[in-house]
Write a structure and sequence with these properties.
By secondary structure, the chain is mainly alpha-helical. The protein has 13 helices and two strands, in the order ββααααααααααααα. The protein has a single domain, classed as Ferritin. A two-stranded antiparallel ribbon has the order 1-2. The longest helix is centred in the middle third of the chain and has 31 residues. The two termini are 40 Å apart. The structure holds fe (ii) ion (2 copies). The site of one fe (ii) ion has 6 residues, from helix 3 and helix 5.
């Protein structure tokens, strides 16, 4: 598994924009300049141009370690820090590969049960991140709304993946439910501890898990695509991907401009394509989070433009519990909240 694979927006399928969908590309003018990418031109019955509005690409500490940083503002880590990052990532890859081998052995031919287990586990890290950040907030160490908003939106998206797998019968056998739910409990405490000690490591671990989810769905779509196109989409999927309020759907996709991804769900194939694409968006968000302070809500760019005061908001944060305690004894309590 290429757990450390770099996910760039051009690697993933984008929504072809026809005349009706182009209305979603509102001319938002964000403070931070947008990169407008002309990805490709599809030759179909009618010519469809794929355009994608993206925020500037986010970096990961891995970029610096590998000498391919694309952001000049990101300070290069010291030799010691590079070593620590490599150890963290090696541990994460070992853990992820070990779990994948166990799942491969247990769920070789039972796809929906495997997806149910994956999705039960997938929500857990976002809940663990929010738990630790809530604790920091209670102590006055943390005042950054973006992280809580984005992580909740991520858990909301993963919950709908779980509901879809349940509607497809992935949770039919008690053993699968027992296994998934007990792994989830262990995973919660492990992630919370890891996040308190090293947020960077915890975010990288989640990137590994999301990367595995992307690869799993991508393989499934390629193998079962023709059959999936003949099957109806679960109602929960239609309601989620084509419902009225898409704020949270946009919120977890931090490298995309809101309103630029609006799936059309006609059959089960469309559902799995969009679940796979969601996993790719989670990967990009987790990668961005590995650089401290890098995460912003996609909606915050527009909100900052509407409200000049929010751009001046003082934000308090810290990187892990050691840094939080250190800052709490050397600086004044947070005065401004948002
Ligand atoms: Fe998922
Ligand atoms: Fe996921």
């Amino acid at each position: 598994m290429a757990a450390t694979a770099m996910f760039s927006s051009s690697l993933f399928p984008t929504t072809p924009l026809n005349k009706s969908s182009s209305q979603f590309l509102r001319p938002l003018s964000f403070r931070q300049p947008l990169s407008r990418i002309r990805a490709s031109v599809l030759q179909d019955k009618e010519e469809k141009v794929i355009l994608q509005d993206t925020f500037p690409s986010k970096t990961s500490p891995l970029d610096s370690v590998n000498g391919n940083s694309s952001n000049d503002n990101t300070p290069s880590p010291s030799a010691w820090e590079k070593g620590v990052i490599k150890v963290e990532q090696s541990v994460n890859i070992f853990l992820t590969d070990s779990v994948i081998k166990i799942l491969d052995a247990l769920y070789r031919d039972r796809n929906y049960a495997r997806f149910f287990v994956l999705e039960t586990i997938a929500r857990v890290p976002y809940f663990a991140f929010m738990s630790i950040l809530h604790m920091y907030e209670s102590f006055g160490w943390w005042r950054r709304a973006d992280y809580l908003k984005v992580h909740f939106a991520e858990s909301w998206n993963e919950m709908h993946h779980l509901l879809i797998m349940e509607e497809l019968g992935g949770n039919a056998w008690w053993f699968d439910r027992f296994l998934a739910q007990h792994i989830a409990i262990f995973y919660y405490f492990m992630t919370a501890l890891m996040y308190a000690i090293s947020p960077r490591m915890a975010y990288h671990f989640s990137e590994c898990v999301e990367s595995h989810a992307f690869e799993t769905y991508d393989k499934f779509i390629k193998e079962e695509g023709e059959e999936l196109k003949k099957m109806p989409a679960p109602e929960v999927a239609v309601n989620y991907y084509m419902g009225g309020d898409m704020y949270l759907f946009d919120e977890f996709q931090t490298s995309r401009v809101p309103n630029t991804r609006r799936p059309t769900i006609e059959n089960l194939y469309d559902v799995f394509v969009n679940i796979r694409d969601d996993e790719a968006e989670h990967c990009k968000t987790m990668k961005a989070c590995q650089t401290h302070g890098n995460l912003r809500s996609p909606h915050s760019y527009a909100e900052a433009e509407d409200d000049d005061e929010s751009a001046c908001t003082i934000e308090t944060d810290c990187e892990g519990i050691v840094d939080c305690i250190k800052k709490s004894v050397t600086s004044n309590p947070a005065k401004v909240t948002k």
